[in-house]
Design goal:
single chain, 435 residues, mainly alpha, 0% strand
Length: 435
């Protein structure tokens, strides 16, 4: 009998140890990193085709990084030396440039380094996902979400496939989202400034996230107001520090182009997704990188004039073909949540694999708001506001990936909401739980 009891105790100890490991986001991050490295090796994604002078290696960001390394400054995002650019934010191109300086422009060593860094960023997102889930919905939802992210096929695919800001932007935004959830738990001005600075860095990496920033500020102001706490000073500090982080880039663009702007490529992005008779969500054939006539026009007119002309073309299309524009917009909205042709080429059963997290996330938002969980409003703002620009420009699976951590948290919450709970499951932390 004593032996049996000892045996049961050992089994219980082993089971508890396993639960502790599975409940550790760091373990999920390490496993996730290993899976991503294995994918790089198995898929040989570090070997880029030399077509178009290695344009696929980072595309515009790779070209800008090469321009920086070769002494031409932040510019020439397509083919040849075309002068300064504001087509993308500055953070990731400078990261690529640093790697190019160390390992060579478009070298295999540089590709390995950048894809490994992407894998690190993606794996670290396990930690922010776990923290967001725990803060909003309890420990079990957060821990499960971290493991889902570690092994989720689309979370593995993008960091090992694309030399782009996607994985870094995803990590940074999830950190900013988490910081926003926690901001009403502090009364320290330096922490408020840190949150605003983080949002500014997110904007310098991928400006699309700034569309969510006003809603994030409004959300935590409402939280502070509901808690009978002053909100004007925190909101002012967060906003001012965010603008301060963005200021050097905006000033640079004004000095170079004579205009106050964060990015210059809206006209081209609009034109890519709004053509009469378009069947695919993006008209790659009309992009200057793949169209000699467009490239020559871009080179001849200059970046801002070219983008302005493209914007006028789209305006004419919208005003003369409003029904076609509306139909394309609805089609692109559906593509954003269910996947484009690239997804269907890469994965089997893609519609289910790609669409199910979207559906579960929307259910999760509904459940959170219905149950009075105030975090549901911030999640809803993210899911509603962020994709809007892609509905009117063009969608791509890696664009949804930018908010995939929040989608994974919501989807996991939906699943755990209807699964049996244990005594170890913790309630959401105050103040981001039920209002």
């Amino acid at each position: 009998m004593a032996t049996l009891i000892a045996g049961d105790g050992a089994k219980s100890s082993h089971g508890q140890r396993l639960r502790d490991i599975l409940g550790a986001p760091a373990a999920a991050a390490m496993v996730g990193f290993g899976l991503r490295l294995a994918a790089i090796v198995a898929l040989r994604t570090y070997r880029f085709e030399p077509d178009h002078d290695y344009y696929a290696f980072g595309t515009e960001m790779g070209r800008i990084a090469r321009s920086i390394v070769w002494g031409h400054g932040f510019g020439s995002p397509l083919h040849g030396w075309t002068g300064p650019t504001a087509m993308v934010g500055p953070v990731y191109p400078y990261l690529i440039a640093g790697v190019f300086l160390l390992f060579g422009v478009y070298s295999i060593a540089a590709a390995w380094t950048l894809l490994t860094l992407n894998s690190v960023f993606s794996a670290l997102t396990c930690l922010t996902i776990a923290a967001i889930g725990r803060q909003a919905f309890g420990r079990r939802a957060g821990d499960w979400a971290a493991w889902v992210w570690a092994a989720f096929p689309f979370a593995i695919y993008w960091p090992v496939k694309w030399v782009w800001d996607t994985s870094l932007s995803t990590l940074l935004f999830s950190a900013a989202f988490l910081a926003t959830l926690r901001i009403d738990a502090t009364s320290r001005p330096l922490r408020w400034a840190g949150v605003g600075l983080l949002w500014g860095i997110v904007g310098l990496t991928n400006t699309t996230f700034l569309s969510i920033f006003p809603f994030a500020v409004a959300w935590f102001c409402l939280r502070l107001h509901q808690g009978v706490r002053a909100w004007i000073v925190p909101a002012g500090i967060v906003t001012a520090s965010c603008l301060l982080a963005l200021a050097p880039w905006v000033i640079r663009n004004h000095m170079v182009f004579g205009h106050w702007l964060l990015r210059s490529n809206l006209g081209l992005e609009l034109a890519q997704g709004n053509l009469e008779g378009a069947e695919e969500p993006r008209a790659w054939r009309s992009h200057p990188a793949f169209n000699d006539a467009e490239m020559e026009q871009y080179r001849r007119e200059g970046e801002l004039a070219y983008m302005a002309e493209k914007q006028q073309e789209v305006y004419r299309f919208i005003t003369t073909h409003p029904q076609a524009f509306a139909r394309l917009t609805l089609k692109k909205a559906a593509y954003f949540w269910t996947g484009t042709s690239e997804i269907r080429r890469v994965f089997r059963f893609p519609e289910l694999l790609y669409s199910l997290p979207s559906l579960l996330a929307m259910v999760g938002v509904f459940l959170a708001i219905r149950d009075g969980n105030s975090t549901g409003v911030l999640f809803a703002a993210t899911l509603i506001v962020f994709p809007l620009v892609y509905y009117v420009t063009h969608p791509d699976p890696r664009f949804r990936h930018l908010i995939e951590p929040e989608i994974v948290v919501l989807a996991t919450y939906t699943i755990t909401r209807f699964s049996p709970k244990t005594s170890a499951d913790a309630a959401p932390r105050t103040p981001s739980g039920n209002a």
